[in-house]
Amino acid sequence: MTELTLAKAINEGLRKAMEDNPKVLLMGEDIGRLGGVFRVTDGLQKDFGEQRVIDSPLGESGIVGTSVGLAIRGYRPVSEIQFDGFVYPAFDQLVSQVAKQHARSEGAITLSLVVRIPYGGGIGAVEHHSESPEAYFAHTAGLRVVSPSTPNDGFWMVRQAIECDDPVLFLEPKCRYWEKGEVDEAAPPSGLFEAAVRRVGTDATLVAYGPSVKTCLKAAEVAQGEGRSLEVIDLRSISPLDADTVARSVEKTGRLLIAHEAPVFGGMGAEIAARLTERCFYSLSAPPLRVGGYHTPYPPSRVEEDYLPNIDRLLDALDRAFEF
Amino acid sequence: MTELTLAKAINEGLRKAMEDNPKVLLMGEDIGRLGGVFRVTDGLQKDFGEQRVIDSPLGESGIVGTSVGLAIRGYRPVSEIQFDGFVYPAFDQLVSQVAKQHARSEGAITLSLVVRIPYGGGIGAVEHHSESPEAYFAHTAGLRVVSPSTPNDGFWMVRQAIECDDPVLFLEPKCRYWEKGEVDEAAPPSGLFEAAVRRVGTDATLVAYGPSVKTCLKAAEVAQGEGRSLEVIDLRSISPLDADTVARSVEKTGRLLIAHEAPVFGGMGAEIAARLTERCFYSLSAPPLRVGGYHTPYPPSRVEEDYLPNIDRLLDALDRAFEF
Amino acid sequence: MVRSARATRGATAAADEDMVQLLAPSGERVTHPEYDLEPSDDEARGLYRDMVIIRRCDVEMTALQRQGQLALWAPLRGQEAAQIGAGRALAPDDFCFPGYREHGIAWCRGITPEQSARSFRQVTNGGWDPYEHNYAEPSIVIGNNVVNAVGYAMGVQHDGAESAVMACTGDGGMSEGDVAEAFVWAAVFQAPIVFLLQNNQWAISEPTERQSRIPLCRRADGFGFPGVRVDGNDVFAMLAVTRAALARAREGSGPTLLEAFTYRMGAHTTSDDPTRYRVDTEVEDWLQRDPVERLHRYLVAAGAADEAWTAEIDAEADGIASRLRDAVVALRGPSPASIFDHVYAEPHPLVDEERAQMVALLGAEDAGSLK
Amino acid sequence: MVRSARATRGATAAADEDMVQLLAPSGERVTHPEYDLEPSDDEARGLYRDMVIIRRCDVEMTALQRQGQLALWAPLRGQEAAQIGAGRALAPDDFCFPGYREHGIAWCRGITPEQSARSFRQVTNGGWDPYEHNYAEPSIVIGNNVVNAVGYAMGVQHDGAESAVMACTGDGGMSEGDVAEAFVWAAVFQAPIVFLLQNNQWAISEPTERQSRIPLCRRADGFGFPGVRVDGNDVFAMLAVTRAALARAREGSGPTLLEAFTYRMGAHTTSDDPTRYRVDTEVEDWLQRDPVERLHRYLVAAGAADEAWTAEIDAEADGIASRLRDAVVALRGPSPASIFDHVYAEPHPLVDEERAQMVALLGAEDAGSLK
Ligand SMILES: Cc1ncc(C[n+]2csc(CCOP(=O)(O)OP(=O)(O)O)c2C)c(N)n1
Ligand SMILES: Cc1ncc(C[n+]2csc(CCOP(=O)(O)OP(=O)(O)O)c2C)c(N)n1
Ligand SMILES: [Mg+2]
Ligand SMILES: [Mg+2]
Question: Which residues of B are catalytic?
Answer without folding.
Answer: 129
